[in-house]
Description:
Blueprint: E1 3-9, E2 12-17, E3 20-24, E4 28-32, E5 37-39, E6 44-50, H1 52-65, H2 72-86, E7 96-104, E8 109-112, H3 113-126, H4 137-143, E9 149-152, E10 157-164, E11 171-172, E12 178-182, H5 188-193, H6 195-200, H7 207-222, E13 233-238, E14 242-245, E15 248-252, E16 257-264, E17 269-274, E18 280-282
Antiparallel strand pairs: 1-2, 1-12, 2-13, 3-4, 5-6, 6-7, 7-10, 8-9, 10-11, 13-14, 15-16, 16-17, 17-18
Amino acid sequence: xxxxxxxxxxxxxxxxxxxxxxxxxxxxxxxxxxxxxxxxxxxxxxxxxxxxxxxxxxxxxxxxxxxxxxxxxxxxxxxxxxxxxxxxxxxxxxxxxxxxxxxxxxxxxxxxxxxxxxxxxxxxxxxxxxxxxxxxxxxxxxxxxxxxxxxxxxxxxxxxxxxxxxxxxxxxxxxxxxxxxxxxxxxxxxxxxxxxxxxxxxxxxxxxxxxxxxxxxxxxxxxxxxxxxxxxxxxxxxxxxxxxxxxxxxxxxxxxxxxxxxxxxxxxxxxxxxxxxxxxxxxxxxxxxxxxxxxxxxxxxxxxxxxxxxx
Length: 311
């Protein structure tokens, strides 16, 4: 399995995914080599969990049949029907779930003020007592607005929904809410707990991406869920910038090492690399994965090593 997570923002949508494939045969093995975020047009990305072969076959069919259906509303209506029709036609279909993140650039994102307030106070409720609770000037501006609906200039109307085989009925995520699908579904609590910072931390650029990644990395560090692993790809989509992918460098000060997730080569393939040794794993698209190779190939460097028992 795996995890794909998303957040519906005031000014767009975020979607992120790990890169682990789990094989459960006589011995369980893991390979951190799968790109689970697939762009569909300029303002839509699809994240996948479940059977890699089935997901790859379906997404290739989507790309072939799309015929310019890049408009969010049309795609949202067409995609579930298309997948429901194509799924039983596969030779050996296995369960899959997709998370679709999209923006309509020609429409403003309009969010009820009550939903904005709830996102902040849901975060406060989960945070430990004594923890600093941050209220930004942006939130104050929203709270003092004279209307109950907040229209965000330059945002684009955000759409975030999950669809699961065999029916692929959309489960839609409201603005200011988050979702996590796959074996790391409990990651959603981390997203809610950091909701005030994801939505309203205003210091520096791309703070929503920073706190989103931090919540994903934190889950990886504290969770015993071994079917989630590798480094996290993250995309933000909004009207102003379209689709942006975010490379990442992580420094381990304890062991004096660093790791990166970057694009390289003429095909802009994503690679995760340990900089001190050059050890690297290139991410493959789901239809490129060789499911006959089930040997262990992990990039577990950002997950803490297990504690050694004391003598």
